[in-house]
Amino acid sequence: MSNFQITEKFISIEDVVHKVIRPEAGAINTFIGTVRELTDGKRTLYLTYEAYASMAEKMMARIGTEIEEKWPDAKVAITHRVGRLEISDVAVVLAVSTPHRADAYEASRYAIERIKQMVPIWKKEHWDTGEEWIGNQQGTKAYALGSKTKEDLHG
Amino acid sequence: MVNVLLFAQFQEAAGRETVEIEAAGQSVAHVKSVLKENYNLQDLDQAMTSINEEYVDMDTILNDGDTVAFIPPVSGG
């Protein structure tokens, strides 16, 4: 079972955590992203997530590699769900284990920020008033070509 | 032939998931202009591009059999 997965099914938090449990670790940090009902005063009815699944898994694995380079004793697992998600459903679960807690906190934050920057997954908001694909990564403009360097993309 | 993948708003605008284009030896920028012209995809300038699942620049040259994807601003998490 890969540590980096796109799935159409319910994500078991326990399963993701289990992938990083090991004797060397004294800390595991998880990040769980859930579907929020209210954004800027607008009421979301449900979300649809779509992914370029094969590339998304590859890019999530790359985030794992980046983390292992920055925090050499870290181990990472990430699962992201696609399809229709209702309010409060779990969209993403990531877990990082490290020997000591400070690294686990830092690395888990790093992982979710990188997901939002460069993993090809898209979210469509559905409201009473309509629907829209959202591109909300840090500085959507960064995705206009040329403003992001190869180094940014390839870590 | 080059296989082009479209996702999210691009897929909806074009009304299809894939496009086959004769573009071996051409740049990614060329493919982008073909798509803009033929498939109602005016927002492609907001996209990043990948070839065979790796991000590339617009001036990268395509080989026969490559898979190109235009990646709209991502919003996972």
What does this structure look like?
The complex is a heterodimer of chains A (155) and B (77). Chain A is an alpha+beta fold. Chain A is built from 4 helices and 9 strands. In chain A, the strands form 2 sheets. In chain A, strands 3, 4, 6, 8 and 9 form a 5-stranded antiparallel beta sheet that branches. In chain A, helix 2 runs antiparallel to helix 3. The relative contact order of chain A is 0.23. Chain B has a single domain (2-71), classed as Beta-grasp domain (Ubiquitin-like (UB roll), Roll). Chain B has helices at residues 8-14, 28-39; strands at residues 2-6, 18-21, 48-51, 54-56, 67-71. In chain B, strands 2-1-5-3-4 form a 5-stranded mixed beta sheet. Chain B is globular, with a radius of gyration of 11 Å. The A-B interface holds A 33, 49-52, 54-56, 58, 80, 91-92, 112, 115-124, 133-137, 140, 143-146, 148, 150, 153-154 and B 5, 7-9, 12, 45-50, 53, 55, 57-58, 69, 71-77.
Summarize the model shown.
The complex is a heterodimer of chains A (155) and B (77). Chain A has 155 residues and is of the alpha+beta class.
